[in-house]
Amino acid sequence: MIMKIYDYFKRVFYQSKYEYSWQVAYRRRNINDNVLIDNTPFQLIPNTEQYWLADPFVYEKDEKVYFFYELFDIGRDKGSIAYSILNNGVISKPKIIVEEPYHLSFPCIFEYDGDLFMIPETGKTHNIYVYKCKEFPDVWVKDKLLLGGIDPSDTIWFEINNMFYIITSLLNNGNPRDTTNYLYEFNMNNGKLQKPFKILNTGKYGVRNAGNIFFKNNMFIRPGQIGEKTYGEGIVFWKCNLVNGKYEEEELGTLHPKDIMLLNENKLSYIGLHTYNVSKHYEIIDLKQRRTNNILKRIQIIFYMIYKRLKLFLINK
After folding, report:
1. Between the chain's N and C termini, which has fewer beta carbons within 10 Å?
2. What is the pTM of this model?
3. Which residues pair with 275 in a beta bridge?
């Protein structure tokens, strides 16, 4: 028991030195406006001492709004997939729904033929898996292995002209900022992918996926991450066309933290942005924030984590 506490102490102390964290924010969607010029403020979802939130997706069902996201455990240095419910302006506490021995993030949610699916990022396994929802929103099972033996990140699913596709961002030499996107036709009947072809040049500007493709103003739009200088600088929006197997993109504009209005918050403390998703009535993003490195804050986090660990041990004893 003492060695476990010591090991946990070391991990928490190390993780408390993170220079940044992520935080999720949402707002009611202005249907008639453009995300690039809409000044409606976003509302932040609070992080905790133990967790921060990132890579959010939004899904609406039965007049409730569900936010699915990566819940990053600072002490364990690992993300799981969790959700919160927005109901009458109140956000529920995070509830973990998919947890594996490895890191999970970017829970791409999509619906097909009355069923709900998820493709989370599982890059640490060098595989891409599809999870299926058996009991909404709490019960998910690993349904299919789509691809193996690759270095994937932030896979998205979309439909154009009654055809189904995924785009996965493959890391170049393990660099999370430098990726090449590949497009696969997705046979939803047998869950298999067709032969891929490269759709974007290798690079750090808007290649890696930043959210699902969405339809607005008679356009299909793909958000892509900007990582030219640092990871998660901002987002570029691409108008995408797929005709006769030929995929083309045209830049529409970019979004950075300075462009974001926050409700009752100082946006100057936010230095990055790397996810944007949208549903019928809501938009959701994540923001990169500098973390304090002072020793008192580290000690506070350490003792909080030890307290939580001991409490759990005594309950289960």
Report:
1. C
2. 0.87
3. 286
